[in-house]
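User: Predict the complex.
Assistant: Input components as received:
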Amino acid sequence: MELIIGWLYPNLMSTYGDRGNVICLQRRCQWRNIDVSIVSLDRAAGVESFDDVDIIVGGGAQDRQQEIVMRDLKGIKAEALRTKLESGTPGVFTCGSPQLLGHYYEPALGQRIEGLGLLDLVSKHPGVEAQRCIGNVVFEITASPLAEELQTMLGEKPIVIGFENHGGRTYLGKVSSLGKVIKGYGNNGEDKTEGAFYRNAIATYAHGPLLPKNPFLADWLIQKALQKKYQTDITLTKLQDELALAARKSMLQRLEFNDFKTKV
Ligand code: GLN
């Protein structure tokens, strides 16, 4: 079996170690003898590069880079991305990427950047004087059916640990939130929502990077991608996640969540 990972604008969108998400997906496939190739969906890529992609990864970006990306993505590439996500191709989008998938992003300075409108959300930066949302974030995944699927996989509530650093505040319309904030700011620091979930696309403010800190999410993406591609039920072999587990435990302790007994 093999999977193709499409990486959106690696040179423009990879803040706070987000490339770790690509590496994590790649390694967790290779350790299971699943071949992986990585396709760069950047300015040099033609629209046909989207065709065979099985998983899409988009990282964070500063406001200026977001604008460059949006200019390039407009039109046929935006349509290709939309078609992929609408058809259930799994994806993980962090911070600046979800802002681009929404209706618009209003940066601290300058003009509103129109988004793809794929996610029913808007993001606004309250201005250069406003405090950024920075720090460790912990949230419970509540989006359906993701939460139920992860609960079955883990045998416990899916708790995500990450790191956030954003000026923009995101406000959801009808799209379901990815989760409920336990610690940190999440989408806007007001309504306790974190991220968004649509079809098989996970949108979040959590860097970390997200997937190495929460490997069950990487496995969920891999499983979905294989099932879609090969049209058959897939059970992934277990990996030795003791180190990731120990890192999660230690992080939760540092954040004073001694009562969470997460396994992975
Ligand atoms: N430019 C966005 C903001 O500050 C996204 C930042 C990021 O991707 N880390 O809100």
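The mean pLDDT is 95.
Let me know if you want any component modeled separately.
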